[in-house]
TrEMBL record:
This is Sugar/nucleoside kinase (Ribokinase family). It comes from Nonomuraea roseoviolacea subsp. carminata. PROSITE patterns: PFKB_KINASES_2. The lineage of its organism: Bacteria, Bacillati, Actinomycetota, Actinomycetes, Streptosporangiales. It comes from the Bacteria. It holds the Pfam family PfkB. One of its GO terms (molecular function) is kinase activity. Transmembrane segments: none annotated. InterPro entries: Carboh/pur_kinase_PfkB_CS, PfkB_dom, Ribo/fructo_kinase, Ribokinase-like. Residues 8-305 form the Carbohydrate kinase PfkB domain. The keyword Transferase applies. Belongs to the carbohydrate kinase PfkB family. Keywords: Kinase, Transferase.
């Protein structure tokens, strides 16, 4: 491959997250006020968190996406820049609202409420061809939240691969529950990065080992995030599982917040692959990145350095 300016180009979502911890399972309406443990305003969006995690691990990272010309959009772009991510290609849409997510966290479980704003108008056409040609790896996030982008992913990945880049995809959740539209995409995706529930849904089966085989048969390499159980992939036709470290290894205070842990996992896996690490070690690094990111509230505050993730 020719010299590239960026190790990683992330195409996808970026928005503020309002994280409310200690939220009741059923908030009381009727203008009732309920006191909670904490509230945090942090950078969110699967794509943005992955981009920040990769930059923290030492990669040269660019982000392409879409925000509105509002205070939320300014917050997002400033947060990405401060973490070393190039946002010169990010579209700022006049008169539009930036996506906004409210996360109601109850222990390690959470409900996620997203107002998509201009997110649904993100498209593959927002990615300048010159930027695509300067990236060694292209990662797309939140496939089902960005229908126009989803339509253009096959063309985007073909162009990336034609230029010698590798590709990865994190579909994240499908609010519709249909899990469609991946038939043309998966053979163009070097690494698919679902969590366990997403992997089972995309594969249409109930057993994880069978799911990774099924997804691999569709032309991609699945790397499945299994939370406290670590991660699973497939090597030479057989599933390979890497366990997660004990919860205490997240830090002295243990797990504080799991928001964005899967996106930090994505960053760790991409960084390990870019450094040429073998499969098992790449998974170990990715699991460590996801685990260490839970040391603080939000997806980016506790993302590890390369030294922390590999020590």
């Amino acid at each position: 491959m020719a010299f590239t300016d960026f190790d990683l180009l992330v195409v996808g979502d970026a928005n503020p997250d309002v994280i409310v911890s200690g939220a009741p399972r059923r908030p009381a309406f009727g203008q009732r006020e309920h006191l909670v443990d904490t509230g945090d305003l942090v950078l969110g969006g699967s794509g943005a968190i992955t981009a920040c995690g990769a930059a923290r691990l030492g990669l040269r990272v660019a982000f392409a996406g879409r925000v509105g010309d509002d205070p939320a959009g300014a917050f997002v772009l400033d947060a990405l820049r401060r973490r070393g991510v190039d946002v010169s290609a990010c579209v700022v849409e006049p008169g539009a609202a930036t996506a906004l997510t409210v996360i109601l966290a109850d222990g390690q479980d959470r409900a996620i409420l997203t107002a998509p704003g201009c997110l649904g108008r993100t498209s593959a056409g927002d990615v300048p061809p010159g930027l695509l040609a300067r990236a060694a790896h292209v990662h797309v996030s939140s496939f089902y939240l960005q229908p126009l982008l989803a339509e253009g992913v096959p063309e985007l990945f073909r162009a990336a691969r034609a230029g010698g880049a590798t590709t990865s995809l994190d579909t994240n959740d499908d609010p519709s529950g249909r899990w469609e539209g991946l038939g043309e995409v998966l053979p163009l995706t070097d690494v698919l990065l679902p969590n366990e529930r997403e992997a089972l849904a995309v594969a249409g089966v109930e057993d994880l080992g069978r799911a990774v085989r099924e997804l691999a048969a569709r032309g991609t390499t699945p790397v499945v995030k299994c939370g406290a159980e670590g991660a699973m992939t497939i090597v030479d036709g057989e599933p390979l599982r890497v366990p997660a470290p004990p919860a205490k290894d997240a830090g002295e205070g243990g797990v504080v917040d799991t928001v964005g842990a899967g996106d930090s996992f994505d960053a760790g896996l991409i960084a390990a692959r870019r450094r040429g690490l073998p499969v098992r070690r790449s998974l170990e690094v990715a699991v460590a990145c996801g685990t260490l990111s839970t040391r603080a509230a939000g997806g980016t505050a506790a993302q590890p350095t390369w030294e922390e993730a590999t020590s």
